[in-house]
Amino acid sequence: MSTPQDETNDGSGWIYSQRVKEHFFDPKNLLRGDPKDYKADGIGYVGSPACGDMMKMWIKVDPTTDTI
Question: Alpha helices of 1-68 — where are they, by DSSP H?
């Protein structure tokens, strides 16, 4: 018996890797609150809005240690 994580809506298999599926079904380190209120030092986008595969990342850099 397959689970929702094994099949797409039409019953075909996923084309994404296991790691991508893990991040999709169990995301980590999500921004809490309104993104407009977050003061990021950098914002990045990757993916294609045409198909909905998009990811947006915000980073904050510590000015003292230059670490994220």
Answer: 18-25
Residues in the chain: 68
Residue 62 has pLDDT above 60, yes or no: yes
The predicted-structure confidence for 30-44, as pLDDT tens digits, reads as follows: 777 776 777 889 888
> Nearest Cα to 2, choosing from 11, 20, 10?
11
Which contacts (CB < 8 Å, 24+ apart) does range 43-47 have? none
User: Which residues 6+ apart lie within 8 Å of 19 measured at CB?
Assistant: none
Q: What is the mean pLDDT of the chain?
A: 78
- Are 40 and 33 in contact by the 8 Å Cβ rule? The answer is no
Tell me the CA end-to-end span of the chain in Å, nearest whole number: 43
